[in-house]
Amino acid sequence: MTIDPNRPYGNLSYDDRKYLDEHMSSSAILNTVSKAAGVLKQGGVHVAGEDKTYEELRAEQKHETAHDTGTKVEIVEHVAEQIIEGFREAAPEAAKMFVEANEAAAPFLTLHHLIKEVHEDWQKGQELNKALIRDAMHVALVESMNGMPTCYVNHAKEERPHASTGDHGPHAKIVEELSKKESAPMRMALQIRTDEGMRAAVDLTTGGTKQAPAEYLKASGLAKRYHDDPAFHAGFDAMTYAAAHDRAQFDQARTAMDARDARFGLSQIFRG
């Protein structure tokens, strides 16, 4: 099916809406737009609500590398020492042969280890490259949606500083592609999902509940959408952030959201 920008999206039947979300997910839209913008040359990257930023993934990789390297060396040295000591007690000649064989094989073991390390470094580099593209997609999404509180847009850029790289960077190209007339159906789908996240945050912050955001999302059956959908995630975080940091921007964004909800025919949040 195709989405008509002139048709109230919120008035779609449940089955139509479910089909749309399964076959035109926010991740798929961002990939399609990024390819059209020339940001993605081939393949694709999965974009979720709770993606790690480039900086978070980089720090995690550095920690894992330092920990794994030290642990592996300690384990190998300990095992080798235990084997040699066992041989020395049970069979001195065998122990001597093991030491000589180990010394002879050392260059080959070093080469094998080097090749493995190079491959692991390549994989980590690929993961970081994808994280950079995801960062650009997340920032472009936040910039492209109507009614986003300015304080949150700036916060999103600060969280992903490598995404905003000038007027000709990846995120700027995605923003430009999303603004084109032919992208209107995809932009509208993202807007509705963002607004649903905003609506959920408004319900949380103005409903008199003292629940933490994670508790509210779980209790309301929206935790999966928050985790999986970058648009819903952005909308929810935008309003919870504005509620805590700039109430005037929160109220302004809420008023604009209410107007869009009326125009799009939204009456409830789609839970999947």
Detailed description of the structure:
There is one protein chain. The chain has one domain (1-272). The protein contains 11 helices and no strands. It has helices spanning 14-23, 26-36, 54-90, 92-144, 150-159, 170-178, 184-206, 213-219, 223-228, 230-245, 247-264. Residues 3-7 have low confidence and may be disordered.
List keywords for this structure.
single chain; 272 residues; mainly alpha; 11 helices; 74% helix; 0% strand; disordered N terminus
Would you kindly provide a brief summary of this structure?
The chain has 272 residues and is mostly helical. 74% of the residues lie in helices and 0% in strands. It has one domain.
Order of helices and strands: HHHHHHHHHHH
Per DSSP E runs of 2 or more residues, the count of β-strands stands at 0
**Proportion of helical residues:** over 70%
Total number of domains: 1
Number of helices: 11
Parts with pLDDT < 50 across at least 5 consecutive residues: 3-7
The major pleated sheet works out as: none
Query: What's the mean pLDDT score?
Result: 79
Topology of this structure?
Elements (H helix, E strand, L loop, with lengths): L13 H10 L2 H11 L17 H37 L1 H53 L5 H10 L10 H9 L5 H23 L6 H7 L3 H6 L1 H16 L1 H18 L8
